[in-house]
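Slide 14.
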Amino acid sequence: MKRDKALLPFGGYNSLAQYQYQRFKPFFSKVYLSAKDNKFNFDVDIIKDIYANSSPLVALISIFETLKDIDEVAILSVDSPFIQPKQFEILFNSAKKESDIIVAESPNGIEPLCAIYRRTILPIAKEMLKDNRHRLMTILDKSLTQKVLFQKERLFINLNYPKDYKIAKKSNNF
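Slide 15: predicted structure.
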């Protein structure tokens, strides 16, 4: 994208991060953004990455190490603007008690950044970090992972390239 996706204007908000935050805030008791530092120009609680590396794995570990009283967290990447709170409601309602991770599966495959992670993954995550293995698919393979299938591929479009961003901005289906 050649610039920070989280700071791109989107959906009538100053940034994609603010757009996501405002959409999900009414549905969760608390919404945080995970980042290396507070680069946002709106009032939001930040969970800063505790480790030098940057990856979703580092963010996940940092979240659980910061929120010590929380046993599960819903995770959504900032660049997936078409996922709705309804998808998380489905994930929560489908969750089995014994699952470590409840993850969305789209027609394109597993969506590790649209998932519920439970604290039980922390030892595996820390071992992966120690071994410098940051792929979330690895933690899904090593944990009791429950997949929840969603049929609509469009929900899981990521804004990875300028053309994706341009198309998403024109969409009326926010």
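Speaker note: Helices lie at 16-24, 56-66, 85-94, 122-130, 136-142, 162-170.
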